[in-house]
Amino acid sequence: MPLYPLLLAPIYKEKVWGGRTLERFGRALPGGPETPIGESWELADLAATSPSGGGGEAAYSVIRNGPLMKRTIGEVIRDFGPVVTGSMTLAPDGSFPLLFKYLDARENLSVQVHPSEAYAADHPDAHLKSEAWYVVAADPGATIYRGVVEGTDPDRFRAAIEDGSVADLLNREPAEAGQCIYLPSGTVHALGAGVLVAEVQTASDTTFRVFDWGRTDRELHVDQAMACIEFAPVAEEAATPGEAAADGDWVTRPLVACEHFRMSEWNALSESMHTFASDELSVLMIIRGSATLSWGEETRRTLSVTAGDTVLLPAGLASVDVGAEEDLTLLEVTPPRNDR
Q1: Topology adopted by domain 239-334
Q2: What pLDDT digit, counting tens, does each position of 228-264 carry?
Q3: Structure confidence by residue, pLDDT tens digits, 13-23
Q4: Catalytic residue selected from 24, 209, 215, 218
Q5: Is 209 a catalytic residue?
Q6: Alpha carbon distance 94, 96 (integer Å)
Q7: What is the value of pTM for the model shown?
């Protein structure tokens, strides 16, 4: 069976800090108007999740278009292999190695850290989680916290945890739409209230919380976090956005180039067509606007996508034409280059 762009169904996660901002995408969110939906898992292939991250249950994204409708992405990968994944290195268990989300922070997320390489090496149940946030929308004055202020040592940081002044020891920066923030494992961080981000990360949800802004109903993991936090300045080289470059009526901007994935932003300047051609798998997250995808050599087929949609382009497709129908912004995520 010829493969085609795979449109994925979201998996919603209720979070105490969440909101209903994803309704702006025209989504019918679960629960009532006060149910706080903090996360939408757009592409997931996890046999299990940690209680602190996803709630302990498995999370498998389901395809919602075409002949493979209702099948999970993991089943398709197992059945089709490199025709889908190309040269992408899968997780040791054969699952998809990345997790794609939207995060809607109505309130501050906990101050948290994900396992460092050294911690993960000594604790088989803990997994690295390096991630990138792309700010989709932000309220005026909204903030992102990333890394500790210069001169902070473990003793001072632990004391701040105990007296509730942790935020004073975190670097904070304004959250602005179009901003990209890379957070390698070991970076202490928090997403501030009033921010909606698209998140691309390694397929792990191991999270150690050190401070929860006065909330008392969730477990903290202070000792584990202190063993993981990187107290040196945050490394910038993997995620210093490159210069925007014109490609016909489209503009592209490289955002992240790390050992786990590459991510770029694409903006259409008009109702025009762009061909995404590659023998590698890619994932498109439609951030704003809408488009029509078309593919096939003898018989052209089409798929309409709109803001909030996430679609996987199998490696075997070779090329897909994306026709912008409105003011279009999308993220393209591909495997890392082998020459890094």
Answers
A1: Jelly Rolls (2.60.120)
A2: 999 987 665 555 667 889 988 999 999 999 989 999 9
A3: 999 999 999 99
A4: 209
A5: yes
A6: 7
A7: 0.94
